[in-house]
Design brief:
signal-anchor, Hexosyltransferase, golgi apparatus, Spore Coat Polysaccharide Biosynthesis Protein SpsA, Chain A, alpha/beta, 35% helix, Glyco_trans_31, 347 residues
C-alpha cells in the first residue's frame, strides 16, 4: 500500500533519518551554547572588582571569595600590604638628607601644606645639614574623591613632596598612616640619620631640631613629648576609649605623643617587625609605644620645654628656645615664621 506516493518502509526510513539528524544538531548546538556561556564574564564584574577581590584556594582547588572580617572599632588592618599611589622614590637618594620631616596631613588640606612650604618647611639646610620634607596622606573618599586625586597629582608635579598610600585617610586609620610612613622611610630613605613625624598644625624650629640631633644617639633613639604613666581611658565617651577586652592593662607604657616625635632611621625596620607581634590599636602613638616596649627600648625625654602640646603664645624669645609647638587655628604661621627669621637677637 502506498501512502502519499511513498511506500511505508521508505516513509519510515525518511522520518527516522530526519529524527536522528535533528537530535544530532540539537546536541551540537547545546555543546556550543555551553562553551559560550561558561566563558562569558559577569558584566557586573569590573577590572577593579577582580583586582581587589580577595580569594582563597580550598583544598579541592576551588577559588572562593575570602569573607571580609572587620577589625572592629578599636583595631586597624595592619600588617597589610599597602601601596603608594603617589611616590617620590628617588628624592632621598638625590638629596641625601640628614633628617626627614614627615608631615601627616589630610588629602584635601592643601592650605596646611602651603603654609608649611612657605614657612619652616622651606628650610632645606640647617647647621650645614640637609633637611627633606614630605607630606604623607591616604586616599580621599566621597563624591569628590577622583577630583581630589587629580588635584593631588598636579600638586605633586609642582612640588614633588607628596607621598600617598592606598588606605582610607581618616582619624581611625592613623596607626596605618604611621606604619605606612615607617615602611616608606625604610624602603626609600633609609640612608638618612633621623626622621621626624609632625602634625600639620605645628610650628617647628628646624635649626634647634638639627642641633639636638647632632648630639643624639644614631641608633635605638626616639624622642618627643613623652607620656609617662598615662592611664587607659575606659569612658566610652572619650575619643581615646579602649575597652578592657581589647587592652587589659590599666597604664600605657611610655610613648612619644603623636603631635611630633623623632626617631633614628634604624628604628623603622625594627618597629615594622615589632608591629607583627602587637595588637594594632587605633591610637597610633600608644601603638608605637607598645612596639617600643616589645623591642625593649624606652623613648628619650627631650630637653625641658622644647615640645609643647598646648599652643605657646608667640614671642621671638620664646620660639627661639623650643623645637616644636602646636599652633592655634587663627595663628598666621607664615607671618610668624618670617618675623621670627628676621635678623637680630631673639631675646
Amino acid at each position: 500500500k502506498m501512502e502519499n506516493g511513498v511506500r511505508p518502509a521508505e516513509n519510515r526510513r525518511c522520518f527516522g533519518f530526519s529524527r536522528r539528524h535533528s537530535l544530532f544538531l540539537l546536541l551540537v548546538l547545546g555543546v556550543v551554547l555551553f562553551v559560550y556561556c561558561t566563558n562569558i564574564r559577569d558584566p557586573k564584574e569590573t577590572v577593579s572588582s577582580r583586582v581587589t577581590k580577595k580569594t582563597l584556594e580550598t583544598q579541592t582547588g576551588q577559588r572562593t571569595a575570602a569573607p571580609y572580617v572587620s577589625p572592629g572599632p578599636y583595631l586597624v588592618e595592619y600588617p597589610y600590604e599597602y601601596h603608594f599611589t603617589i611616590n617620590e622614590e628617588l628624592k632621598c637618594k638625590q638629596e641625601k638628607p640628614f633628617v626627614v620631616l614627615m608631615v601627616q596631613v589630610a588629602p584635601r588640606n592643601r592650605a596646611h601644606r602651603d603654609v608649611i612650604r612657605n614657612s619652616w618647611g622651606s628650610e632645606k639646610l640647617a647647621n650645614n645639614q640637609v633637611v627633606a620634607l614630605f607630606f604623607l596622606l591616604g586616599m580621599q573618599t566621597g563624591d569628590d574623591a577622583e577630583q581630589v586625586h587629580q588635584q593631588l597629582l598636579q600638586e605633586s608635579k609642582e612640588h614633588h613632596d607628596l607621598i600617598q598610600g592606598d588606605f582610607v585617610d581618616c582619624y581611625k586609620n592613623l596607626t596605618i598612616k604611621t606604619m605606612v610612613m615607617l615602611e616608606w622611610l625604610n624602603s626609600y630613605c633609609s640612608s638618612a640619620a633621623y626622621a621626624m613625624k609632625i602634625d600639620s598644625d605645628m610650628f617647628l624650629n628646624v635649626p634647634n631640631l638639627v642641633n639636638l640631633l647632632l648630639k643624639a644617639p644614631r641608633t635605638n633613639y626616639m624622642t618627643g613629648l613623652v607620656a609617662h604613666g598615662a592611664a587607659v581611658l575606659r569612658d566610652p565617651k572619650s575619643k581615646w576609649f579602649l575597652p578592657q577586652e581589647i587592652f587589659s592593662e590599666s597604664i600605657y607604657p611610655p610613648y612619644a605623643l603623636g603631635l611630633g616625635y623623632i626617631l633614628s632611621l634604624d628604628l623603622t625596620k625594627k618597629l615594622i617587625e615589632a608591629s607583627r607581634h602587637i595588637k594594632p590599636l587605633y591610637i597610633e602613638d600608644v601603638y608605637l609605644g607598645l612596639c617600643m616596649r616589645h623591642l625593649g627600648i624606652r623613648p628619650t625625654d627631650p630637653p625641658s620645654y622644647s615640645f609643647h602640646v598646648f599652643p605657646l603664645s608667640y614671642s621671638r624669645c620664646a620660639y627661639s628656645k623650643i623645637i616644636a609647638t602646636t599652633c592655634p587655628e587663627n595663628m598666621d604661621r607664615v607671618w610668624i615664621w618670617r618675623e621670627f627669621k628676621k635678623p637680630g637677637p631673639h631675646c
